[in-house]
Specification:
The protein is α/β, with parallel strands linked by helices. The chain has helices at residues 5-14, 17-26, 46-52, 73-83, 116-131, 152-157, 167-179, 199-208, 222-231, 240-243, and strands spanning 31-36, 60-63, 88-90, 104-110, 136-144, 184-188, 213-216, 235-238. The chain binds SN-glycerol-1-phosphate (1GP). Residues 35, 188, 190-193, 216-219, 237-241 line the site of SN-glycerol-1-phosphate.
Length: 249
Amino acid sequence: MALSWTNIFMALQKNNILQQIELARANQKKMLAILLDPDKLNPKDVQEKIRSLSAFQVDFFLVGGSLLLTDYFDNFIQALKENTNLPIVLFPGSAQQVNKNADAILFLQLISGRNPDFLINQQVQAAPLVKQTDLEVIPTGYILVESGRETTASYISNTKPIPADKPEIAVTTALAGQYLGHRLIYLDGGSGALNPIPQEIIKSCKKSLDIPIIIGGGIRSNEQMQAAYKAGADVVVIGTAFEQNTFEI
Ligand code: 1GP
C-alpha cells in the first residue's frame, strides 16, 4: 500500500509526542490528555467513551494505572487504536504495563518517593521490554503531591507524597528531575484525588523549570482545568471525571 502524505504526517506526529508537547509549550498552547485506566473501562466500552469525548479538544490519551487487575491490557490498547487517531501514551504503574502497540511511553521515575523499586528497579525490568518496541520513550520525573487522602498511587508505591503546603519541596524535587535528564515533570495528586495540585506548587515549578509540566489528579471541572493552565500547567490530565461522566463544563 502506498503511503499517503496524511499517513506519513500522522506517523511523524505519533513518533514526536514529546516534540509536540514542547512545541505547544513554546507557543503557549495548552494541551489536554485523557487518562484511561484499563481496570476501570472495559475494551467493549472504549468506542462509546471516545465518542463521549468528541466535544473536548483532546490531544492524546494516557493508558495505565497503579494496579493491573485485568488481563486485557493488550485488547484495551487495540480497541483504543481502532477508535482514535490520537497518540496513545503509556502511563505505566509498573514494568508490566509496557505494550508495543501504543505510540509512546512516559518512562517514569517516582522522584518524590524514596522507594528504590520505583526509582530504578521497575525501570530496569521495563528497559529490555521497551527495547523490543518502537515506542517513543519520554523520560518523565513523576511527583506525587498530597491531595487530601491517601491515594492508590502513594499506597501501592509505598511512598510519601510531597506535602501540599510545601511548594519549595516540589520545586527542588522537580528541578532535580530536570537536571537528571527528565524531559517532562508530572505533578500528580493521584487518581480520584480530593484536591487538585495547589496553584502555588504549579506556579513555583513553572517559574523554575525549563521543561513542560503535566498536572493531574482530582480535576473535575473546566474551572479547575483553566486554573491549572493559568498557574502554568502545559498539559492537564483528567481521568476519573471523564470516566464517571461527571466533568463540569
Ligand atoms: C491520575 O493524574 C491522573 O494519575 C488523573 O487523575 O483520575 O483524578 O483525574 P484523576
